[in-house]
Amino acid sequence: MKITALRVYQIDLPLREGRYNWSNGNFIEVFDSTVLALETDEGITGYAECCPLGSAYLPSYALGVRTGLQELAQHVIGLDPRDLNVVNKAMDEGLRGHPYAKAPIDIACWDILGKATGLPVYTLLGGKQQDKVALYRAISQEDPDVMAKKIDGYRKEGYTKFQLKVGGDANDDIARIHATREVLDNGEVLVADANTGWNRHEAARVVAAVSHLDVYIEQPCMTYEECLSIRRRTARPFIMDENITDDAMLRKGLADDAMDAINLKISKVGGLTKARLMRDMCVNAGLAMTIEDTWGGDIVTATIAHLAASTPEAFSFSATDFNSYGTVDFAAGAPKRVDGFMSPSDAPGLGIEPDFDVLGEPEFEVSLV
């Protein structure tokens, strides 16, 4: 089997709530997502999606996904998509860095492998360890009382884990954490995610001010060293996200006891092949994970569901149902949230089929000459 063509689509994903705010005044109203169709000479097509959280969150951006795929096409056309390590080696040698641009090709190869073998991706990733995966709900950054009031509505949708977007003014963030924790029930989980937004002195103030609360602290500062400093000042459980970019940084974090959990974002690390490696490292080290991505729609949500379902429940802290945040459905078979959980398809591959009436014509196509 050989890869013969890449067809690349662009789709806008507006938000149901109109706007998503996070640290330092960043916000998005419409996400720019890229969908890849990876074709083969045996008539099997694999699909994937990549959707950066704007251009101010990680070293990634929507146009970079598509130009990266154009650059990578010459290195993967003609390869067997079932040879995942060969494909990843060719991408890494052909384009230094830019893991988010490589992720769709890797994920589409997993989809092809599943279809070729008749197996769902979760089986290929190690087997289903959870029938349903617990989800968290991100709470866009607003005034403390507004954020607290939103929890009741999210609770009615089945969520019991809430990720509070902080990383603004320290005084406001202290109020946000207190206001939301106050309305949560016993057993419900609160994560204060600063998305690198605090300076070290601000983070030190916040963790001291909430030291008596049941709250997780996530990625308080920009650099790994700053976060490690704050980690050593607080007894609150600590999550690392933006700084855990690959398996080398994960090894460093484990050696330094830098965190109690990580956010494992599939496109951030380069796709399912590398995410599976990091997932298994975390399980072996006893480290819990939120398994998710930067953003996306139906295909990203399906990919998350397969990796999370193949992860032992004890180490699957939470996951994300991004397709419930948006207004556009574009793939049949994608997971749907049910009472705060989601499950992957049992069909071969990712178990999704894009709706090309919604996706429209491809932005570009690169094929075997």
Task: List the keywords.
alpha/beta; eight-stranded parallel sheet; four-stranded antiparallel sheet
Explained architecture:
There is one protein chain. This protein has helices at 62-76, 84-94, 99-117, 121-124, 144-156, 170-183, 200-209, 224-231, 247-255, 266-269, 272-285, 298-309, 356-359; strands spanning 3-14, 20-21, 27-28, 30-40, 45-50, 133-134, 136-139, 161-165, 189-193, 216-218, 238-240, 261-265, 288-292, 316-319, 331-332, 341-342, 353-354, 364-367. By secondary structure, it is an alpha/beta fold. It starts with a strand and ends with a strand. The mean pLDDT is 97.
Q: Major sheet, described briefly?
A: 8 strands, parallel
Return the average pLDDT rounded to an integer.
97
Kindly report how far apart the N and C termini lie: 16 Å
Enumerate the strands of the largest sheet in spatial order, edge to edge or round the barrel.
7-8-9-10-11-12-13-14
The geometry reads as globular
Structural class: alpha/beta
In the predicted model, the low-confidence regions spanning at least 5 consecutive residues are none
Radius of gyration: 20 Å
Helical element count?
Answer: 13
In terms of DSSP E residues, the strand content is 15-25%
Helix content: 25-40%
- Total DSSP E strands: 18
